[in-house]
Amino acid sequence: MESLWKLSYLLEPASLALIATAVSVAYASASRALDHGKEMERNLDFSEASITLDRSQALMIPLASSCSLLLMFYLFSSVSHLVTAFTAVASVMALFFCLSPYIAYAKSRLNLMDPFVSRCCSKSFTRLQGLLLMFCISTMAVWLVTGHWLLNNALGISICIAFVSHVRLPNIKICSLLLVCLFVYDVFWVFFSERFFGANVMVSVATQKASNPVHTVADKLSLPGLQLITKKIELPVKLVFPRNLLGGILPGSTPGDYMMLGLGDMAIPGMLLALVLSFDRRKSKDAAVASDMSPSSKQRKYVWYALTGYAVGLVTALAAGILSQSPQPALLYLVPSTLGPVVYVSWLRNDLWELWEGSDTTVNDKAHLLEV
């Protein structure tokens, strides 16, 4: 009975906000990835073409992530300024990427004149793009000064969407390989790393704050307003929500604690969502061309099975964390809850082979053909 009572904390504002945000970001990442692919095909601009993972790259991602995790575990204090600076630049680029479509939409709807003003990195910049870039830089600067969790989340969401849009999966075969490898990666570093390294490596890296280079420079130069600049800062590599959001409080927490979810726990399922969303769109287009009005053409889309599974897996992960009062590897729950329904339903519909091998021509393939 006590355990059931603890589960009521899933209805706390912080928990609900985390779940709603993560599900929305996962779907938004998949949708933006699909739109980005269409933009690349329409504009024939392959300088920003997406990377489509192959088997070796899928195997390398968990290995590279493990090396990065150990590097951050042992040397974070030495390289935190460099990591913060790199993350700041990446967040500006990601935020610019996410907001650019809205600027283009507003320009077309309002018939705004937007002359080219300069060229940078072999690309032409318009006036509105320049203003958007200044806005993104200003947002990053305010985050560096204040370290506010809302700005941290906004920049982290932008990085997640940009990653899913530029790193793609060609089929369920490669997707399954990647998810299973990351499943093992997450479980090992959360549950077993303490036996080998004397501490929970994943939790240690996820919870430590980085030194703020802005504060360091201001302190060295004895600039005024030093007390207004946060000394330590959360990097936008995870979503964070105060546990006392709107007055709520979770068991075993203090008002200064945060609920958190790593960007990988949204980006990796988001890659699966992007794959099945693209498959759904292609099947719908084929049915429309063939004027197919059979019941199979009106079946529920695969993306909704994956998204529902993602929500269920996320709630299960949070529930396990509350009941056990210990950190949980989110991918332990998210991988089976997202990949499982897609594979099972596609098998029932005789779509599994097409999903498994993939039949979509990728942007990189078209870029190669164009170059030839």
Structure description:
By secondary structure, the protein is mainly alpha-helical. The chain is globular, with a radius of gyration of 22 Å. The strands form four sheets. It has a two-stranded parallel sheet with strand order 1-4. The C terminus is likely disordered. It starts with a helix and ends with a helix. Helix 2 packs antiparallel against helix 10 and helix 3 packs across helix 4. The protein contains 13 helices and eight strands.
What is the topology?
Layout: H1 2-7, H2 13-43, E1 51-52, H3 55-110, E2 116-120, E3 123-126, H4 127-146, H5 149-166, E4 167-168, H6 172-197, H7 201-207, E5 210-211, H8 213-220, E6 232-233, E7 238-242, E8 258-262, H9 264-289, H10 302-324, H11 330-348, H12 352-357, H13 363-371
Parallel strand pairs: 1-4
Antiparallel strand pairs: 2-3, 5-6, 7-8
Spatial strand arrangement across the major sheet: 1-4
The value of Rg in angstroms is 22 Å
In total, the number of strands is 8
Q: What count of helical segments does DSSP give? A: 13
Low-confidence stretches: 360-372
Can you tag this structure with a few keywords?
372 residues, two-stranded parallel ribbon, single chain, mainly alpha, disordered C terminus, two-stranded antiparallel sheet, 13 helices
Summarize this structure briefly:
With 372 residues, the chain is mainly α.
